[in-house]
Amino acid sequence: MWQQLIVFLIVGGAALHFCTKYLPLAWRQQIVHFLARRGFDQAKMAKLFKTGPSCGSGCGSCGSCDTPAKPAASDSASSSSSSSSSNSSKRVIMLHVQR
Known about the structure:
Blueprint: H1 2-21, H2 25-37, H3 42-48, H4 75-89
């Protein structure tokens, strides 16, 4: 009886660790939202599952309701700065072949 209870706790802890670490972010956010609807504290669940609070709570932290940023005032100034900033914003992943 006690052995089964201990094994159940160990397997449950391993499953919780797997869910908090290896599941995709979208699934973890859905789990947090599901648990928040069931009465758990969303902030604690988000911290446990290493996500931010989901948009289902209406907290506004996801930024989906924000107004879009205003465009630059002059196109000529933005075109010269955008060419240098576009090159710096691109990331290149260098692959090193080991033989």
